[in-house]
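Budget justification note: compute hours in this period were largely spent on complex prediction jobs such as the one shown. Inputs:
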Amino acid sequence: MIAHWFRARPLNQKLTILFAGTSALALFAACLAMWSYEWRTYRQTMKREMITLSATLADSSAAALVFRDDRAARETLSVLSAEPSASAACLYRNDGVRAAAYREQAGHLCPSKPGSERADFQDGRLVVVQTARLGGDVVGALWLSADLTEMYRRLWRLTQIYAGIMAGALLLAVAISSILQRVISGPILGLAAIASQVSANRDYSIRAPRTSEDELGTLIERFNEMMSQIHQRDIALEQSQDALEERVRERTSELESEIIHRRIVEQDLLAAKEAAEESNRAKSSFLANMSHELRTPLNAIIGYSELLEEDELAAGNESAVSDLKRVQTAAHHLLELIQDVLDLSKIEAGRMDLHMEQMSARSLITDMSVIEPLARRNNNRFVVQTGDRDYVTEVDPMRFRQSLLNLLSNACKFTENGIVTLTLDQRLENEKAWVCWTVSDTGTGIASRDLEKLFHSFSQIDSSATRKHGGTGLGLAISQRFCQMMGGRISVESEPGVGSAFTIHLPAHGPVNLVGAGEFRQLPVASSS
Amino acid sequence: MMSAKTLNLAAILFFVALPGGTRGETPMADEYEIKAAMLANVFKLVDWPASKSGDLSAPFVIGVAGSEDMETALGKTVAKMAGRKTPAGHAIVIRKISGAGGIDQYHAIFIGGSDRKRLQTIIQAVGTQPVLTIGESDKFTSLGGMVGLMVKDDRVQVEVNLPAAQSAGLSISSRLLRIATVIGGGGS
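Corresponding output:
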């Protein structure tokens, strides 16, 4: 309780209490020691005085006791009137008879027998028994009772004096300590006030004045050092914050300029793309128009060279006939080329319209016997393999045939003394049913690194092959575009020296019709000679 | 002093009255026993000059004249004393005195009875020698004796002839003088 109260006191009060309390305690201890010493001294002095008095009286009354002179004994005791603290006294003769009494009264009665020689404090009084001797023989005894009131009065007086001294000294201690404590509490309170000021104002530039050279002075100095450290740190923090903001600003402006730059580039790119697309469309449109314009005179060339050939044949002019045949071949090739370019241009210009209809997959390959002569030219065998099943698909029949014939003619061109096979089946790819027409050969094959280039316009693996086999180099690209427009694609697998396999994939539609038993059946057209 | 004496007498009468007749019929032997004890006490209260008391090997000689009873009682009293010696250490010797010769050998002489002639003879023989004379007669001190011991019942009255004792070179303790009736002194 007292400890809690003390903790709640301000520092200066604590110090005053400590100083004054310590002084008061020391003073109290000193007073107590002095008081108890005085008490002891009083008792001892009184005892000694009473023993001396008793001895004197006993000695003086020895003769009176011996000669049984009670009057003389009473006279001897009467000297006690000079000693106020002697409350009662009696003289006893050797035979136990009481010879004289002094001031015997109620409460201070002499005992019937004096007892042995002693000097004791008992019942608030001092009782002394002193034997009277004459010539070494015990002739009687003195019993003396001394009142302690006087002693107690003096002790009480002493207590009052000590209490007064203590009160005065305590007041003096409080007064002096309340002045002297400022030496310690002053700097601390000043420091506390400055700390509060710093905390309230967030002003770390304030410094506490150093007033002493002791630990308090050191404390204040350390406080000031900490303050200056905080101050410096604040400044550094502020500076770094400024620098950071500056960096952020710089970076932001950099980013902004970069974004602007990129936007410009993007716009440039977009413009370039649009320009490119525009020019591509212009090119396609130009090509479409040009192809048409080119075909008309070419048809005239072919027509008139055939008429001339018939005329020359009838005239028997052999050399002219062969020349005219060469003209026709070149014209046909040119026509073919123009046809292909026209197709490609139409596709790229977005003007190619397909006429889609539901068709049987088998019916689409019934007229493939047209390829027989081409196959035979390179001494190849043409085989068609179809299962018993038929599949329904949706195609533009003319464009489909064009694509398939392109694949077959390619296979026949690039294979010599081999087999060209056309296979029809259905496959599941990407959880969808596909109708697949595969044209495989036993030709030269294509290196894997060239496979990608196959479907690009004007691309042939071997440019010398074009010269040898003819063809425009546009066929595969056009076929691929057609198949893609019909919802499918053309895939290729090839191994150099073994052969190639080109497959047209088109989505399967509707139910599958069973044609008949037998796994494979050679179509009548495939019967090779 | 006279009034004190009267009181003393009253006290004596008071004490006599209390025990009744038994004290009155006390045998003489009891009286001498008391007197012998008193005599022994008187010796403790008197100082002899060095010539008489310096040599511890010399005995303390008590002469008894004219009282067989006193001689007997004193013998008994001395027998009770430790080692039959005085507190100073002298052996105690009791002798009967027949004549006046050889008085100087005694330290103290008890003269019994009230025979005037015998009293005077011995007192004169002592003269100023340091010999304490003690008597039991009322007129003992007035005849020149030094200490008179008068016993009435169990009370003892002491008379001291201070000039006689002083001229004999004996010093009597103030404690004895305080309870005694002093004859011939300045105070009486």
